[in-house]
Amino acid sequence: MSRRVRLIVMLIFAPAFAALLGWAVAGLEPFGTTVTAYATTVESVAPREQQISNIVASVVYDIRAFDSLGEEMILFASVSGVVLLLRERRGKRAHSASRSIEATDLVRLTALVWTVLAVAYGVFLAGNGHLSPGGGFQGGVATLAALVLFYLAAGTRRMQRFAPTTAVEALESAGALGFLAIGCGGVIAGSAFLFNWLPAGKFGSLDSAGVVPLISFAVGMEVAAGFALLLSEFAQQLEQ
Amino acid sequence: MTLPAVLHFLPYGVAIWLAVVGLFGLTRSRNFIHLTLCLTILQASTYLLLLSVGYRTGGQPPIARGATAAPFVDPIVQALTLTDIVVGATVTALLLSMAVQLHNRGVSLDPESEKPFRK
C-alpha cells in the first residue's frame, strides 16, 4: 500500500472512527454523574473490612492484586527485553570516557541534595500508600528520580559504583519474587492466592491494611530497580 | 453545579481527538521514534477517557481517612490508569531500545524502508 493510498484510506476511516467513538460516548451518562456498582462496593468494603484508607491502593494491591501482578510481569518482561536488546552490543566497542558529560559543581551539589530527598520521598510514598495518595508504582518512580539526579551529577561510571547492575537486578527480582511470595502466603494461610492474610489492624495506622503495604513496597522496589536498569542501559548506549 | 452541554462532552472529545491523532500519526510515520510517541499519545487517550468516566461532580479523592460526606471519584479507573502509566513507560522503553538497536545496525529508522511497506 503506497503512502498516498494509505492517506486516503485514513482520511475516510479516521473521521468514521471518531464518529463511532463519539456515538459511544454520547450513550454514557452525563460527565460527572457516572456511578458504577463496582466503585460503590469497593468504597464501602475497603475501609470497613481491610481497614485501608486509600481506596485506590486497596484496588491495586488487594482486591485486584492479581491484575497488578500481571502488570508487574509486563514491566519485568519489558525491562528484561530492553536489557537483552541493548546489552548485546556492549563490549564490542571500546568505552571512551571522553564522551561522558561532566556536570558543573552547582549541578552536582543541587542534584546530590535532591537525590537524598527524592529517595526519602519515594520510600515514604511506597510505604504509606495504604493511608494517603501513593503506593508502590508512584513511590518507585519517585525513587527513580533520585537515580536520574545522581546520574546527572556523577555520570555513568560513578553510578555503576553507587548502584552496581548486579545489585539492581537482584533488587528487581526480589521485588517480583516478594509479590509472588506474599501472594503464596494467602494459599498457606488456607485461602486463595493473593488473599489478604495478615490482620487488618487499626484503621489509619502504619501497620493496618494487612498485606497491602508489603505488596506496595515490593512493587516499589521492582519499579525503581526496573527503571534504574533502563536508565543505566540507555546511559551506556550514549557513551559507546 | 450545572455545566454547559459542550463542557459535558469536552473531556471525551479530547480523548477521541487524541486517539484519532495518535492513529493518524501511526499510519503517516516516517521514523520509529516518532511512531513510538504516536503510540503513547494513543495510550494517553485511554487514560483521559477512563478518568473522565470516573469523575463525579463535587467529588473528593478516594481516601477514606478524613473524608467528608461528598462522593468519592471512581477509584477503579484511577487504579487502572496508575498501573498502566508506569507499565506503559517500560513498554515505550522497549520500543525505543528496538529503535536504538536498528540505528546501531545501520538500518534506516524509517518504517517504510523495510517490509511489508517496501516494494
Q: What does this protein structure show overall?
A:
The complex is a heterodimer of chains A (240) and B (119). Chain A contains 8 helices and no strands. By secondary structure, chain A is mainly α. Chain A has one domain. Chain B has 119 residues and is mainly alpha-helical. Chain B has a domain at 4-56 and 75-104: Orthogonal Bundle (Helix Hairpins). Helix content of chain B is 65%, strand content 0%. Chain B has 3 helices and no strands. The model of chain B has no long low-confidence stretch (mean pLDDT 83). The chains are: A mainly alpha (240), B mainly alpha (119).
Our count of helices of chain B gives: 3
Strand content of chain B: under 5%
Q: Biggest interface, and residues per chain? A: A-B, 67 and 55 residues
Mean of pLDDT of chain A: 80
Q: Quick one: how many beta strands of chain B?
A: 0
Parts with pLDDT < 50 across at least 5 consecutive residues of chain B: none
Domains of chain A, number: 1
How widely separated are the two ends of chain A?
Answer: 38 Å
Detail the poorly predicted runs of chain A: none
How many DSSP E strands of chain A? 0
β-strand amount of chain A: under 5%
Residue-averaged pLDDT of chain B, rounded?
83
Over the alpha carbons, how many angstroms does the gyration radius of chain A reach? 23 Å
Total DSSP helices of chain A: 8
The CATH topology of the domain at 4-56 and 75-104 in chain B is given as Helix Hairpins
User: Can you tell me the CATH architecture of the domain at 4-56 and 75-104 in chain B?
Assistant: Orthogonal Bundle
- Which CATH class of the domain at 4-56 and 75-104 in chain B applies here? Mainly Alpha
Level of helix content of chain B? 55-70%
Question: Which percent bin holds the helix content of chain A?
Answer: over 70%
